[in-house]
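> call design_seq(struct)
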């Protein structure tokens, strides 16, 4: 079996070859045309020697070019050369602008390189599986400066409020983190007022394999850590220690028909969405299926996506299972060749993630020092919204306030979500290429948590402490984004300018999986982002973003109505894709 690639000359290549091999040369052009003929023949001989062309095919290609050129010359005989009054020939050299020559060169280069990659010219007799595997990735270097306002509520206030307020409500519980020194004093370990500068690195390396026309698999490794699902950044300054790589994706994809795709494992985000609902770094564990109408000429392409994702396995009797269900109905519209619109309406339902007051414990007093202690049962902490999952912004309450009435307890409370989460999310985007090369892109998203309910909160919270408490919060949020420039910054000198504004209430979406950049992550945020991306070279871009954000509702309960958090962030990125 002959696995050597065949050479299919482009129209430009065939024209140049024909001109070089067959056009007659006039007196002033003979030497340059003869040089071009020899160069072309040398190129063909080199292709034969490398196994790209057989000698028979090379000879046939030359004969075909000569015959076509001779036929063209016979049909359009060259006019007799003009002469001067004294009989000397006038030489006319056609002018080819530099831009046209550059275009011809780039077209030939791109088509030849694309064919070489597709047919693996440098790998003669390559096995079939080589063509089914694709490796890609990116490496990003980042400078990040976070400037927290000096007027932010001090961390000391959060710590004291946590210990002294029996009706513990918060939207930033981790600002109350503390440690105990040798003298028994409590010291806050969080920082809400200082600036922070970091140099960071992100590496992602992916592999996809097409097993058959119906089956494919994907694997991706990434830097980061095992407890931060919305970031793959690695902060530098680890005393030159090596970095860890984690499995960021591992999935199987089935395409049994043109109109359906099924994925299972740790899969890419299957939803049409913005970072207000799902962080761009999030990957989902579970199963998703997408149904779509086959492509037709009317520009109408509806789709339906459904998914199920386990969040926590049940370990009875101590923990209950948690999961996420979702469905999204939408369509892509091509209104004309220069206007594309996409719409999607999604409904997500989180199961068993809401908090409930703790009852499975016994309280006792240590006779040696009088300190309060607890003896926890198997079900204690079953509805906690843990520190390793939450970011900041969702309204949470102390599920065990009875146990922590004074600082002497030295026991930190357990926090649970005040509200259930069943957000309805509408997403829209549009691309306008009427002004090419300056394209315009707009996107918008609105979310409303349909499960936001004060009465439901009071049914789950201990009436002794929360019967008359309104935890507050907001159920909806929105984001608007506008961009001008290249649709995707890939080539040198491509650029794109972005402007975005976000106003996301505390309980519009779950803060665990939303964007981690604006306001240092989470919900209960309003603020804007200004960004610029510029292509330095092919697949190498320099980006800069400036973000300013502040909280919407108090970060503590109504006893601290002025509690606030503001932060401005500057990020400068160098991103190389391969």
């Amino acid at each position: 079996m002959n696995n050597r690639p065949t050479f299919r000359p482009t129209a430009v290549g065939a024209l140049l070859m024909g001109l070089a091999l067959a056009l007659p040369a006039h007196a002033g052009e003979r030497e340059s045309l003869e040089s071009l003929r020899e160069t072309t023949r040398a190129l063909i001989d080199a292709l034969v020697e490398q196994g790209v062309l057989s000698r028979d095919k090379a000879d046939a290609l030359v004969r075909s070019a000569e015959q076509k050129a001779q036929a063209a010359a016979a049909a359009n005989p060259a006019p007799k050369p003009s002469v001067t009054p004294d009989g000397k020939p006038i030489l006319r050299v056609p002018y080819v602008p530099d831009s046209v020559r550059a275009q011809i060169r780039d077209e030939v280069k791109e088509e030849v390189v694309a064919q070489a990659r597709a047919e693996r010219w440098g790998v003669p007799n390559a096995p079939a599986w080589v063509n089914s595997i694709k490796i890609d990735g990116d490496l990003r270097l980042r400078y990040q400066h976070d400037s927290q306002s000096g007027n932010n509520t001090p961390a000391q206030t959060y710590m004291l409020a946590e210990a002294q307020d029996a009706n513990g409500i918060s939207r930033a519980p981790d600002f109350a983190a503390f440690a105990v020194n040798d003298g028994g004093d409590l010291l806050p370990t969080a920082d809400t007022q200082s600036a922070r500068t970091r140099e960071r690195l992100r590496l992602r390396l992916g592999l996809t394999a097409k097993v058959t026309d119906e089956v494919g698999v994907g694997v991706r490794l990434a830097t980061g850590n095992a407890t931060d699902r919305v970031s793959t950044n690695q902060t530098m300054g680890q005393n030159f220690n090596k970095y860890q790589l984690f499995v960021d994706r591992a999935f199987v994809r089935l395409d049994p028909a043109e109109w359906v795709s099924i994925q299972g494992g740790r899969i890419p985000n299957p939803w049409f969405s913005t970072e207000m609902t799902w962080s761009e770094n999030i990957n989902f564990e579970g199963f998703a299926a997408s149904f779509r109408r086959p492509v037709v000429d009317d520009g109408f392409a509806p789709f339906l996506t459904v998914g199920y994702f386990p969040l926590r396995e049940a370990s009875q009797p101590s923990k209950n299972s948690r999961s996420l269900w979702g469905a999204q109905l939408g369509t892509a519209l091509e209104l004309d060749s220069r206007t594309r619109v996409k719409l999607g309406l999604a409904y997500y339902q989180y199961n068993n993630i809401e908090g409930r007051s703790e009852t499975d414990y016994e309280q006792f007093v240590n006779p040696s020092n009088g300190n309060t202690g607890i003896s926890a049962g198997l079900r204690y902490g079953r509805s906690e919204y843990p520190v390793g999952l939450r970011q900041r912004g969702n309204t949470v309450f102390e599920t065990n306030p009875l146990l922590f009435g004074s600082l002497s307890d030295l026991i930190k409370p357990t926090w649970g979500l005040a509200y259930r989460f069943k957000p309805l999310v509408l997403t829209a985007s549009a691309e306008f290429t009427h002004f090419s090369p300056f394209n315009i892109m707009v996107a918008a998203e609105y979310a409303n948590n349909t499960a936001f309910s004060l009465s439901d909160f009071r049914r789950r919270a201990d009436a002794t402490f929360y019967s008359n408490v309104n935890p507050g919060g907001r159920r909806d949020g929105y984001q608007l984004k506008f961009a001008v420039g290249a649709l995707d910054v890939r080539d040198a000198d491509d650029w794109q300018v972005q402007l975005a504004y976000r106003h996301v209430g505390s309980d519009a979406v779950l803060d665990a999986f939303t964007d981690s950049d604006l306001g240092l992550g989470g919900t209960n945020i309003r603020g804007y982002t200004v960004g610029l991306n510029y292509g330095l070279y092919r697949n190498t871009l320099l980006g800069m973003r400036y973000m300013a954000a502040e909280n919407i509702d108090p970060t503590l309960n109504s006893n601290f109505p002025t509690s606030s958090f503001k932060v401005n962030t500057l990020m400068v990125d160098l991103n190389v894709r391969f």
